[in-house]
Design a protein that fits this description.
Layout (H helix, E strand, L loop, with lengths): L8 E6 L1 E14 L6 E14 H11 L2 E8 L3 H12 L3 E7 L6 E8 L2 E8 L7 H14 L5 E5 L8 H13 L4 E4 L13 E2 L3 H8 L6 H15 L5 E3 L5 E4 L5 E4 L12 H13 L5 H15 L10 H14 L6 H8 L6 E6 L6 H11 L4 E7 L1 H8 L8 H9 L6 E5 L5 H7 L3 E5 L15 E5 L7 H9 L2
Parallel strand pairs: 1-4, 1-8, 2-6, 4-5, 8-9, 9-10, 14-15, 14-17, 15-16, 17-18
Antiparallel strand pairs: 2-3, 6-7, 11-12, 12-13
Helix pairs in contact: 1-7, 3-4, 5-6, 7-8, 8-9
Length: 470
């Protein structure tokens, strides 16, 4: 994971909320109606909406200013005091006596939310208030490394105001990330990126996302309609789908974790992405970091946040669990911005022996990153007969992953690695010495093709024949 190089300053503008939690137990049904009777054991307030985004950013280590509206009420007073205690800038938080501070009350039994009660106004703010907010931002925007528009459709981020803010951010070359709501995404046109979940993206694009192709079409439509620099869709436990420079969808996965509460997970994702982009970290690394952050917070109850240390620890666990055996699309994302020399080779590696080890060690010396394309079980059966492989693909991949010289292993199901080589476009394509004077499949996609001699008398077939006594 890329190391962070500075403490970014980020502006969050949008709908400010208080998440009110009522924690209780229920052991009986009311005699008045067929509903549970909740015995309240505890209740507390937490920052929600744009406030939760700001809280996530502070937890990550950013400097944060918040811009939005509160009512002239006790909840607003609580919010401002809480924000101030977290050292979140509140100079741009305005009071509007005509509307209440947005409050969402959730009743929790046994770590499960059973009811939510909302106190809020969804009325769009008047034009004079739009002008006041814009004038403040116009004066302050040069102070920030990134801007987040946290839209919960409560009336602060009107289409006119948001378009002016996006244009202002673009004129200052500041990344602006929007958490969208509703089905009219034209209000977000020109943003750096949006962070809709699958359901939101389906509603906005009118494309039912049922597979990778429809996910790709939805991301393409969003990018075209909204003129986005990056088009992505969050996929809950399936990670993030992002459109690459070839207009193809690249899925950056997360790993499963016990989920207690998804409240605020979207806030965590957009905060994490902005935190990374504000420091010049590439979008693929930013998505990996955001995935890990979301995985941490859904393992907690309530509008939770994740620290940078928690996220990096989670990433470290993930990388240790599955560091080398990797999906092609994920690998392409990891290599997207690299300037290291990529070496590729492939094979069955059915029974690992000295010849394999020496060959792979020599291949590694030719560059910085060695990728091994590993034939699947079905591929080997077609090539070598029904009695092969001796070892199944998961076992073969696991053994290869134990070799220090190998950086990544990608399984492929075709008879040749042609499509794999085409997708990776390695700097060096390596094959065994028995390919001398032969056409090497995929060589047209590599900058250089080199042959390495095998160790004489060492092969899987010879080992199998010896075991059989042949």
């Amino acid at each position: 994971m890329t190391y962070f190089n500075k403490q970014p300053k980020i502006l969050v503008i949008g709908d400010l909320m208080v998440d009110h939690y009522i924690w209780g137990e229920s052991t009986r049904i009311s005699p008045e109606a067929p509903v549970q009777v909740v015995d309240v054991k505890n209740e507390n307030n937490r920052l929600g909406g744009a406030c939760n985004v700001a809280n996530n950013l502070v937890s990550l280590g950013a400097k944060v200013d918040l811009c939005g509206l509160i009512g002239q009420d006790s909840m607003g007073e609580w919010m401002v005091a809480q924000l101030d205690s977290l050292q979140i800038g509140i100079q741009l938080v305005l009071v509007d006596a005509t509307r209440p501070t947005t409050q969402k009350s959730r009743i929790i039994l046994s770590n499960q939310q059973i009811l939510r009660i909302d106190r809020e106004s969804k009325q769009e703010i008047p034009q004079d208030l739009e002008e006041k907010i814009y004038a403040i931002l116009e004066e302050k925007i040069s102070n920030y490394d990134a801007i987040i528009a946290s839209d919960y459709n409560k009336g602060v981020l009107t289409k006119a105001l948001l378009q002016r803010i996006i244009n202002l951010a673009n004129s200052e070359n500041k990344p602006i990330l929007c958490d969208p709501k509703g089905i009219d995404y034209s209000k977000y046109k020109g943003a750096t990126l949006l962070t809709p979940n699958k359901k939101e993206a389906q509603e906005a694009t009118q494309i039912k996302i049922i597979d990778k192709k429809t996910l790709e079409l939805a991301a393409q439509k969003m990018q075209k309609d909204c003129d986005l620099k990056v088009s992505l869709i969050t996929l809950s436990e399936d990670g993030i789908g992002i459109l690459d420079s070839d207009d193809k969808i690249l899925q950056i996965p997360t790993i499963a974790r016990e989920v207690f509460d998804v409240t605020g997970a979207g806030d965590t994702v957009i905060a994490s992405l902005a935190f990374c982009l504000a420091q010049g970290i590439g979008i693929y690394d930013a998505c990996r970091f955001a995935n890990a952050a979301a995985a941490v917070v859904v393992g907690k109850v309530g509008s939770a946040v994740a620290s940078k240390e928690e996220i990096l620890a989670f990433l470290n666990i993930k990388e240790k669990q599955n560091k080398k055996i990797i999906d092609l699309e994920v690998l392409r994302g990891l290599l997207k911005d690299t300037h290291q020399k990529i070496v590729f080779t492939n094979g069955c590696f059915d029974i690992l022996h000295r010849g394999h080890i020496q060959y792979l060690q020599e291949a590694k010396k030719l560059g910085d990153i060695l990728i091994v394309g590993l034939n699947s079980d079905d591929s080997i059966k077609r090539l070598k007969g029904k009695d092969r492989p001796i070892n199944m693909q998961d076992d073969r991949a696991f053994v290869l992953a134990g070799l220090e010289c190998i950086d990544f292993i990608v399984l492929f199901d075709e008879d040749t690695p042609y499509n794999l080589i085409k997708a990776l476009k390695p700097d060096v394509l390596v094959k065994g010495g028995d390919y001398k004077d032969k056409v090497v499949v995929g060589s047209e996609f590599a900058k250089q093709t080199l042959l390495i001699d095998f160790v004489e008398g060492k092969s899987t077939s010879l080992i199998i024949n010896k075991i059989r006594g042949e």
